[in-house]
Amino acid sequence: MHLTVKLSTTLRDHVPGYIPEKGLQVTIPEGCTVGGLARHLNLPQQDIKIVMVNGRQHKADDLLRDGDRIAFFPAVGGG
């Protein structure tokens, strides 16, 4: 399956050559989950706080589909 992945802020550091304006085109096997994609990209699971798939929040064990657009977000701090 072919996916488009966007990484926010500090998560970008884990994917060499990531270009925020373009995102990342990824090909993974059918039946892959959100968590499986994160592992495939070597993203630290503990750093991922929100995952959006096609504009809707999803969990690590949710299955992905061909053509999905996935965005990973870390925790956001402020004060």
What order do the helices and strands follow?
A: EEHEEE
User: Structural class, judged by helices and strands?
Assistant: mainly beta
Strand content: 25-35%
- What is the level 1 CATH name? Alpha Beta
CATH architecture assignment: Roll
Organism: Desulfovibrio intestinalis
Pfam family, one: ThiS
Protein name: Sulfur carrier protein ThiS
What does this structure look like?
The chain is mainly β. The chain has one domain (2-74): Ubiquitin-like (UB roll) (Roll), CATH 3.10.20. 9% of the residues lie in helices and 32% in strands. It is built from one helix and five strands. The chain has one helix spanning 34-40, and strands at 2-7, 24-27, 48-53, 56-58, 69-74. A five-stranded mixed β-sheet has the order 2-1-5-3-4, with no helix packed on it. The longest helix has 7 residues, at 34-40. It starts with a strand and ends in a 5-residue tail after the last strand. The relative contact order is 0.31.
List keywords for this structure.
32% strand; ThiS/MoaD-like; 79 residues; Sulfur carrier protein ThiS; mainly beta; 1 helix; Ubiquitin-like (UB roll); single chain; five-stranded mixed β-sheet; 5 strands; Beta-grasp_dom_sf
